[in-house]
Design a protein that fits this description.
The chain is an alpha+beta fold. It has two domains: 114 residues, D-amino Acid Aminotransferase, Chain A, domain 1; 161 residues, D-amino Acid Aminotransferase, Chain A, domain 2 (Alpha-Beta Barrel). 29% of the residues lie in helices and 27% in strands. The protein starts with a strand and ends with a strand. The structure holds 4'-deoxy-4'-aminopyridoxal-5'-phosphate.
């Protein structure tokens, strides 16, 4: 595998970042997870836009333009012969001193890794996930806004550990008011009748790119789509539930905190949206090979 670091490609064993990089010392940096399907990078522009938006929020000046960043992602895929894959793009604050002041970091580092990912075993896509709410509350947007896709994922990691300790693969994270925010690496949707509902971004959700795509597909299918605050009660009494994310794609949920959702198996609307999403990912995106 060839890894892009600051404009050059390195073999895996030589792809290294300094221990003085504040991305490592403090989680000071941002990232994106992107997928390629059928030799195209899916929703590349949206991912790069979100990367620049995260950078702006943490006052980090990316040393490249949008176009250069898009080209770096596509070139790294081409360099690695990627047709279907998962791309990790990160921008760290760069090398500084041991103090946390980012002013000591002279130049951000840009890394692109084009590899593979399988977030959940295939059986969960067929049968659905059993998930639980966990004690760790989603970061306050007035503290570290969950809209920023930062390299500091401890909030999510703690929730993931709590889910695992409870025998589950994924956690529902609530915000400090007790409303549903999202899962540790995915947005959450429920279906109630012909209404598709997902928490508003103000509840502490990431501006999920898959979330946006699914909302568009649902509207085109004649569903009404809304973003109200949701409580656990709303989840328990949903007809269907699923999660969305670039890595996880669309994954059905059949149990939440011991309550069976709908019929206890992936519902027809979820299955239909999965099929539509697959079709869309297969035919759209930034071509890797011209
Ligand atoms: N929420 C969180 C916390 C995430 O990290 C992600 C990305 N893995 C998502 C939601 C889903 O976002 P996207 O659809 O843009 O991948």
């Amino acid at each position: 595998m060839k890894i892009y670091i600051d404009g050059q490609y390195y073999d895996e064993q030589n792809a290294k970042i300094s221990v003085f990089d504040h991305g490592l010392l403090y989680g000071d940096g941002i990232f994106e997870g992107i997928r390629a399907y059928n030799s195209r990078v899916f929703r590349l522009k949206e991912h790069i836009d979100r990367l620049f938006a995260s950078a702006k929020a943490i006052l980090l000046t990316i040393p490249m333009t949008h176009a250069e960043m898009m080209a770096a992602v596509v070139d790294t895929c081409r360099e690695n012969g990627v047709k279907d894959g998962y791309i990790r793009l990160l921008v760290t604050r760069g090398i500084g001193t041991l103090g946390l002041n980012p002013r000591t970091c002279k130049r951000p580092s840009v890394v692109v890794i084009a590899g593979k990912i399988q977030l959940y075993p295939e059986e969960y896509y067929q049968n659905g996930l059993d998930i639980i709410t966990v004690p760790t509350v989603r970061n306050l947007h007035s503290a570290l806004n969950p809209a920023i896709k930062s390299l500091n994922y401890l909030n999510n990691i703690l929730a993931k550990i709590e889910a695992n300790n409870g025998g589950c693969e994924e956690a529902v994270m609530l915000n400090s008011e007790g409303f549903v925010a999202e899962c540790t690496g995915d947005n959450l949707f429920i279906l109630k009748g012909r209404q598709l509902l997902t928490p508003p971004l103000s509840a502490g959700a990431l501006y999920g790119i898959t979330r946006g795509v699914v909302m568009d597909l649902a509207r085109e299918s004649g569903l009404s789509v809304a973003e109200p605050n949701l409580t656990r009660y709303d989840l328990f009494n949903a007809d269907e539930c699923f999660l969305t994310g670039t890595g996880a794609e669309l994954i059905p949920v059949v149990k939440i905190d011991g309550r069976v959702i709908g019929e206890g198996k992936p519902g027809p609307v979820t299955r239909d949206l999965v099929a539509q999403y697959r079709a869309l990912t297969n035919r759209t995106g930034e071509p890797i090979y011209g």
